[in-house]
Amino acid sequence: MSTPRYDVDAIRAQFPILSEPVRGGRLAYLDNAATTQKPDAVLAAIDDYYRHKNANVHRAVHDLAERATTAYEGARDRIARWFHAAREQIVFTRGTTEAINLVAYSFLRPRLQPGDEVLLTGMEHHSNIVPWQLVAREKGARVVAAPVLDDGSLDFDGWTALLNERTRFIAVVHVSNSLGTVNPIDRMIAAAKARGIPVLVDGAQSIAHLAIDFPALGADFLTCSAHKAYGPTGFGCLVGRREHLDAMPPWHGGGDMIRTVSFEESTWNEAPYRFEAGTPDMAGAVGFAAALDWIESVGLDAIAAHEHRLLVEGTALLADIPGLRMIGTAKNKGGVMSFVMTVGHAQDIGTILDQYGVAVRTGHHCTMPLMARFGVPATVRASLAAYNNRDDLDQLAMALRKASRLLA
Ligand code: PLP
């Protein structure tokens, strides 16, 4: 049986913003690791929620409240299915950052003793460094980071060497937002499990590109953000093992997270509601569920294969640009091309690319320790998604040549 052709034009047609003129010309949107654009299906689901279902959830008995609750809790079922998890394992958050903070404060903080270590890697996003630092500092513990090799892959032996009896927790990025490196999380989780150390996987950059079966993976926690997977901003979730979530104390107080409240004492709702204080982002949940439906309709494997083809083509195009040096050349790599150029600072290059309609991210990408590891203050990062095509790559290469000439 032949595999169906990947119809990138038909996919592009579903993303209205891709035909938005920028600087008076064609947009080549290559800033997908920062946030992805949204297809009609997601925009329509959010619009439909507000037009036909909006009310506060879990509280009133009227028809609209019932519709809102059904939509919101239906989204939880959909998201749980994505990870092969149970609905009770899905805690809605504002995104990866909040999900990591939740685990840092509710799970790790009560367990952390002076002298303990939290083991990270040298390629973590600030969101997967600072929350651990905050609780570690308070408890007299410390954060330790495993080395990164010259090609941007994890020094696995170096990481293993840092595992010891003081290691209380491990957190690791699945796919690096700055380099595209895919970490060997299966091996890491196996090594951690052998020592009984809990592991959190930062899935911010992986859920839209790699299939994740949470129970099979064996991690204790996984975090993600809807906006990096064609869904709305300000929404995401924590996926957790039930025995952990059931035992964890609340970390935010307010409505919906309680069972009873009196001035003397309050008691807590069950997980996941115990962690969802206040009126939640119902439209966010609905939009995220629609985004996962959309990815499934195209096929995650087909998207990953398309992005890989573009990564290979893009890497070859960039190799022909004089003075360009790629940062991050790991064998197992997602759709990220991060580079520096001898002609000028990443910021100046990004500014020129913008004049030619090319949207890339420039800077430290919230990974300052990783930039220091490679001895650069910043990189230019072009990152891929389902709707990118060869024209986007050609536009990037053309604009880089212009930048080289202008800055020379
Ligand atoms: N972790 C990684 C690897 C990321 O790329 C990002 C966002 O860029 C985050 C965490 C934080 O995600 P959010 O800002 O959606 O909470």
Unique ligands: pyridoxal-5'-phosphate
Could you give the count of β-strands? 15
Q: What name does CATH use for the topology of the largest domain?
A: Aspartate Aminotransferase, domain 2
> How many H/I helices?
14
For the CA atoms, what is the radius of gyration? 22 Å
Strand arrangement across the biggest beta sheet: 2-8-7-6-5-3-4
Shape label? globular
Top CATH class of the largest domain: Alpha Beta
Estimated structural class: alpha/beta
Main beta-sheet annotation? 7 strands, mixed
Q: Order of helices and strands, N to C?
A: HEHHEHEHEHEHEHEEHEEHHEEHEEHEH
Task: Look at the structure and give the mean pLDDT.
Answer: 97
Compute the separation of the termini in Å. 52 Å
Low-pLDDT ranges: none
Please indicate the percent range of residues in DSSP E strands (runs of 2 or more).
Answer: 15-25%
What is the total number of structural domains?
2
